Each structure stands twice: as structure tokens, then as C-alpha cells.
Amino acid sequence: MMTGRSATWSTVLYVIGVVVALVSIVVLSHRSEIRYRIDATKSRAYSLSPQTVDLLNQLEGDWTVAVILLESQADPATVRQIDEVLSRFNSTNDALQVLRIDPTRPESLRAYETLLVDLQDRYRDEIDQYTLAIQEGIIEFQGLIEFAGVMAGELRVLASSGARQLSLDLNPRIAALSLMAGQGSLVLDEVDKALAVDESRPLPNHAKAVSILSQGLSQWAEELDDTARLLDAEESLEAARIGEDFNVEARRLAISSDRLLRLPEMELSRIGSLLQSGDAAIVMGPERAAVIPAGQLFSGMVSGTEERVSFDRRFRGEQLLSSAIRSLDEGVDPTVVFVHDRDVSVLAADSNNVDVSGAQAMLEASRVKVMEWPVHMEKRPLIDAGSPVVWIVLSPARRTGLKPARTELELIQVAAELLDEGEPLLISLYPSLLPRYGQSDPWASLVRPLGIEVDTGSVITESNRGADGEHVVTRAQVMTEFTEPHLVAAALHGQSLALPLPLAVSLSGDAGRQDVSLMGRVQPMTNRWLESDWSPKEAPMPMQPDQVAIDQSIPLIAAVERPSPVDGSTQRVLVVGSGGWMLNYVADMVMATGGERYALLYPGNHELLLSGSAWLAGLDDRIAPGPLSQEVARLGSIATRTRVQWTWFLLLGIPGLIMLAGIGVWFRRRS
User: Fold this and answer.
1) pTM
2) How many angstroms separate the CA atoms of 202 and 353, rounded?
3) What integer pLDDT is reported at residue 634 of this predicted model?
């Protein structure tokens, strides 16, 4: 046995040996040839799917994937996950350049500027076409300013020498021309601002500059033409001469405005507006590029209470980046047509937020062309050849009475014709008063041949007690779990989806050869019931004694696949038992997350539209599954009773077992 100095040296040598061994293990573990890593996250957040690996291996040409992220405002875990996913992309194909850029960091500025230059090089022909058109438009507008200055003086002389009525008619026109001559350059200043580049606008907005010029030229073409008509009505030779000058100038401006309006849509301007909004991902192929905005890149699920709200932001990079790459590689851009019976455009912002302008922006950001078709005002729109088309039927929310209006009947007829033609449709239904009076709802009859029964006479209603103890009755359902084996459900799983005025969807007796997948299930609860007396004119009432609580799950969404009535190919239809879920007042609700940044309150609404449109168009490989849908060994919903039992077990059971073990040990030692 060692004692004294020998024991001391032995201990020192032992410690040194352990330190050397640990250092050696760490050094060796960083060597790639002997290093092996596994993805143990339950959502497989750091692994690429075999489909993505195959796609990346087949890429040819110059490809770049760049994630633009303000690191100071991002969660460190999210940043690590982005870096890991980008690293996996790069290791799969060395020809693929991957970048993560923070525009606020000096070391990233060069990479950011290079990225913007490469992006503009992809659209050089488009930029040159717009630049030439803008220069010509500016010259025309400068000519208008000079014309206004000269003609204001000539009209002033004519007004002073003519009849009193002519003078009264010309005075406001003289004032407008004088104002154009003096301040017309302000319009050109706005054009210069649209083309300027600064920290907040990384790319010039050529489309906005064209819009400013075309609107100005068009408006003044009408003004000058109106003045020419006024002068043509006069009998004097001087008025006729001046009127002809106005006619010539009006035609010149109209031609210039029309030339600007006929320019093809500029994709780069849309990309620039998305980059201006903040975090995004850019995918650049050999010829074109795609941008994925932050709203899609990070799936935000909001939960909590009024006092405390938490945001679950998962990086969906692998799914969305691979979808964007596949879109650019295939060169196929689908078209979505909103079919409606309104007198105004559903794509224009509405003061009551009952439009789909937000949905339009999200679709266009995903390289989807968006159109509308008011069936009672316009003919069926022409679709570009080779573009898969999806028809989204917007049923009317407000009805004039029990009898459908003429425009609504026309919309139903168009929807029925599209179904008979084998076209892919998305149909959303509102509740109806007709079933209450023993009549059939034509919208429910429309989807019944698809093997679907929608109970449009009853609304799923829920009652809860508020902070003041009073009953709070809601006619909407918010859900986050979509565990059904369907592509759309996988994309929605884990994202908050809000469905106002929800209607029960079930299988009908006409299922036949249809393949129907039901999803988005409302779970049974004692405070949920089907309310037939749901009229918006009446205040919602709590659950009455004679009403029965929902005792089984009720689906709200149905995905149908059936043989096409035309050629036997597969026709797809998506039916949603809620009418207003895609309108701005629901889909675009946001909540502040701090730092003047906002997150969608219900990101599942946009996701349902995006993934649903892709599924209807047959572009299944572009549907990005949600992170939660890829989890393994995940528990589903736990009943309240079971949760309470486990809570008490964890709080009392485990400490009790430890206490019993201690008592047992104490008794054993005593004995």
C-alpha cells in the first residue's frame, strides 16, 4: 500500500491521465470519418427526408438557398435548427450554395449584397423591359407637364373672350392644368422613390413605379379628352384648334398608359416586397427565384390565456424549401380562381375585412397565380395552358331571405357545372335558415352527390364561463390537432385553425365510388352542442336543459377523390363546414410578439388554403407537412379525468413512495 509522496504522485498522474484521455476523446470525436450523429428529436427536425435527398441530388445548374433572419430577434434554438438544416442541404449536393444572412450584422452585408445582385441577374431581361418602359413613361409625363403649362395660358385667353358658360366650364380645368404644370414633378418624385434602394427596401419596386405612371397618364388622358369634347362643341375656330391639340395629347397619353399596363407581371417586385417585410427564405434556380415569407417559414401556434400567451415557432425549412425548389425545377405554377357572386372584387381590401386580399398575397408568395370570377358579371376566365387550376367557390354569407337571390342561384349553377366537368373545387358552406322551415339548402344538395352530408341547419356551439362567472357562448371552433392520414391534415397538424360558424360534416348514403377523408374533428364535451336556433339577429344563449351535448367527434372538413364524370381521371374536391375561415377578418388576425413584430393568430387558415390548393391541383409533393405531423411516439389528446389522475399521482404518489421507502429503511435499521 502506497503512502506519503508515492500516493500523491500516483494521484497526480492518475488525474493527468484522465484529462489527457478526455481531451483525446473530444479531439477524435470531431473527426468526420469516425463521427456519427443521429436525429433524436421527436419531430425529426434535423433530418432530410429521402424525397428531399433525391430531389437535391438531381439538381443541375446554379442553385442557391438563403435564409434571411434577424438573429437578435430569433430564438437561439431556431437559429441552430436552421443552420443544421442548411448544413444537411449543402452536404447532400455540393453544387447547392446555402447561406444564412443577418442583414444587421456587418459580416453578412457582402453576402447579402451579392445575393441581391444574383437575384437581379436572374431577372435581367424583365428589369430591362420595365426600365425602358418607365423611362418612356417619364418622358411622356414630362411632356404632359409642359403641355399643361402652355395650354393653361391658351385656355385662360379663350375663357376671357368667350361666353360666360364657357368661362365657368373652363376655369376648373385651367386650375387643374396650372397645378399640373407647377407640381407635376411631385409625381415623378414618387416614381424615383419607388425605384430607390435603402435599408428598408432591398430591391427597386419597378411595378410600383409603373403603376404610378400608368395611373397618372390614364387619368390625365381622360381629363384632356373631356376638355376636348367640351371645346369641340364650341363654334369658334380657336376653340376647335385648341380642342384638336387636346385630342392629340389625350390619345398620346392613353397609348402610353396602355403600353405600361400591358407589361407582364414583374415577379421581382413581388419578391422585393416580401423581402421588405422581414425574415424570409430565398430559393434561386438557374432562371427564376422563389421567396418563402416568415409566415410560412415558421409555423406559429398561439396558445395560452388572456393573461399569458405563448408562441410555438417551429422551423419548417426542409419541407418548404424542397417544395420551392421542386416548383422552380418543374416550372409549373398553378392558378387559383375565386368564384363568387359579389358586385365588388374579393381581391381588393374591404373596410369590413370580408375579402381575401390576405389569402391572395400568401398564394402569390407561393408562386400561385390568383384570379377571380364574379359569375353574374363576367365570363369564365381564360387559364394559361399547362397551369393546373383550382376553383374556390365563395358562398354568400348574407342572404336576402329564405329564397336564394338570382346571383346566388347562378353561383350554385356554375359550381354544379364545374363539378360535372371534373374540375377541382374548394367549397365552403355557411349555415342556412332553410332547414329550420323544412326546406332543403341548395348548397348542402350541391355537395351531397360527393358522398358528403353537411348539416347547414345547425351550428356547433360552445359555452364557457368567463372571468366574471357569466356564460360566454361562442359559435366558432379553434383546433390544432389533425391526426388523420391525409396530406392536408399532415400540413395542418400543430397549427391553429379557426372555423367560424362550424357545421358538422359526415358521410352520406351517396358515397358510391367516392373516396372521402374526414378531418378536423371537434371532440365531444359537455359544454358543446348543435344549435339549430343560431340566427345572427338573436343573442346566443347558453345550453338549455332540452339540448343534448355532443357525445362523439364531429368532422368539419372533407377531402373527396372520385372518378371524373368527363374522362374517368381522378377529381378532387375539398369541402369545409365553415364559410368565412379564409376571409381577412379571421385568417389575417395577428398578435404582437414584441419588437414591433406580429404573428398570425390562426396560421392554420392560410395553411389550409395553401395545402388544400396544392392537393386539389395534384401537386402533392409541394405540400409541406407540419413539424408536429412528423413526430414519433407522440401522445394524442388526454382526457380530463386521466390528466387529473396523473397530476395527483405525480404530486402525491411519487413523494409518497419515497416517504414509504424511507420509513421502511428506518424500521429495518431499528430492527
Assistant:
1) 0.68
2) 30
3) 42
